[in-house]
Amino acid sequence: MAAHKQPLSIVKMKQMKEKNEPITMVTAYDYPSAALVEEAGVDMILVGDSLGNVVLGYDSTLPVTIDDMVYHTRAVRRGAPNTFVVADMPFMTYNSTVSETLSGVRRLMQEGHANAVKMEGGVEIALMVDACTKAGVPVVGHIGLTPQAVHQIGGYRIQGKTREDAERLLQDALALERAGACAVVLELVTEQVAEMISKKLSIPTIGIGAGSVTDGQVLVFHDILKYTPSYREKRFVKTYADLGAVIRDSVSQYVKEVKGRSFPAPEHTFRADDQVLESLYGHRKVES
């Protein structure tokens, strides 16, 4: 268990990049997972809108609302009071007006108690990133595979495989940095392009499926632990335990024992004393 620590700051984040000290981030969605992640010593927690797929049972992130994000961010903050928490801005909450964007950001910061917000996109959202940073809100960018735009980019495809694509990703990353972003997530980006972007930026890059050359890494709590009813293997994910199997086996054993009346056993049962039995039955109940 990690000792009590001061939460990461955007200043320390840049210092870690300068020192080549990798930043660790885990995506978590509730109180118990956040508490365990903080105890394990991660630097940052991302409350991702991937909760739509992982927790809420949707087939994409698109149905996730700002209310969903506030609710789950608040729970994560209760579980991890000493960790830097980043909350995703959900689909279509930062693509209209600055006023609407800041309204959603305000809710995640004031009600959800996030330390920062995350937005998907590059050049096209630079204005919103600039407005948020000028309002005093740290913003983490997200380029490469952007799940909120999965229909537009043609599915879950590796990004940065062509020269044109690599140049586009670099320009997006530079635009986010100029707008004041404190870090950038690179998702499903070829390792060579991720390395080039990481070297060009003065702010940290956090990779997922972007190789080992980024300034940090992020994985989803449920992927790390195979905590899902039907786990789908992903090349860029390493699983460290199979909690799904443990949970299924444990609950199956519970069902078996209840059906067979072996649970609860005497050691799980509370007994009343003789006076209570006499008041209930008028005499001491004889053991059968």
From TrEMBL:
<comment type="function">
    <text>Catalyzes the reversible reaction in which hydroxymethyl group from 5,10-methylenetetrahydrofolate is transferred onto alpha-ketoisovalerate to form ketopantoate.</text>
</comment>
<dbReference type="GO" id="GO:0008168">
    <property type="term" value="F:methyltransferase activity"/>
</dbReference>
<keyword id="KW-0479">Metal-binding</keyword>
<keyword id="KW-0566">Pantothenate biosynthesis</keyword>
<feature type="binding site">
    <location>
        <begin position="49"/>
        <end position="50"/>
    </location>
    <ligand>
        <name>3-methyl-2-oxobutanoate</name>
    </ligand>
</feature>
<dbReference type="GO" id="GO:0032259">
    <property type="term" value="P:methylation"/>
</dbReference>
<comment type="similarity">
    <text>Belongs to the PanB family.</text>
</comment>
<dbReference type="InterPro" id="IPR015813">
    <property type="entry name" value="Pyrv/PenolPyrv_kinase-like_dom"/>
</dbReference>
<keyword id="KW-0460">Magnesium</keyword>
<dbReference type="GO" id="GO:0000287">
    <property type="term" value="F:magnesium ion binding"/>
</dbReference>
<keyword id="KW-0489">Methyltransferase</keyword>
<keyword id="KW-0808">Transferase</keyword>
<feature type="active site" description="Proton acceptor">
    <location>
        <position position="187"/>
    </location>
</feature>
<feature type="binding site">
    <location>
        <position position="118"/>
    </location>
    <ligand>
        <name>3-methyl-2-oxobutanoate</name>
    </ligand>
</feature>
<dbReference type="InterPro" id="IPR003700">
    <property type="entry name" value="Pantoate_hydroxy_MeTrfase"/>
</dbReference>
<dbReference type="Pfam" id="PF02548">
    <property type="entry name" value="Pantoate_transf"/>
</dbReference>
<keyword id="KW-0963">Cytoplasm</keyword>
<feature type="binding site">
    <location>
        <position position="49"/>
    </location>
    <ligand>
        <name>Mg(2+)</name>
    </ligand>
</feature>
<protein>
    <recommendedName>
        <fullName>3-methyl-2-oxobutanoate hydroxymethyltransferase</fullName>
        <ecNumber>2.1.2.11</ecNumber>
    </recommendedName>
</protein>
<feature type="binding site">
    <location>
        <position position="88"/>
    </location>
    <ligand>
        <name>3-methyl-2-oxobutanoate</name>
    </ligand>
</feature>
<feature type="binding site">
    <location>
        <position position="120"/>
    </location>
    <ligand>
        <name>Mg(2+)</name>
    </ligand>
</feature>
<comment type="pathway">
    <text>Cofactor biosynthesis; (R)-pantothenate biosynthesis; (R)-pantoate from 3-methyl-2-oxobutanoate: step 1/2.</text>
</comment>
<dbReference type="GO" id="GO:0005737">
    <property type="term" value="C:cytoplasm"/>
</dbReference>
<dbReference type="GO" id="GO:0015940">
    <property type="term" value="P:pantothenate biosynthetic process"/>
</dbReference>
<feature type="binding site">
    <location>
        <position position="88"/>
    </location>
    <ligand>
        <name>Mg(2+)</name>
    </ligand>
</feature>
<comment type="subunit">
    <text>Homodecamer; pentamer of dimers.</text>
</comment>
<dbReference type="InterPro" id="IPR040442">
    <property type="entry name" value="Pyrv_kinase-like_dom_sf"/>
</dbReference>
<dbReference type="GO" id="GO:0003864">
    <property type="term" value="F:3-methyl-2-oxobutanoate hydroxymethyltransferase activity"/>
</dbReference>
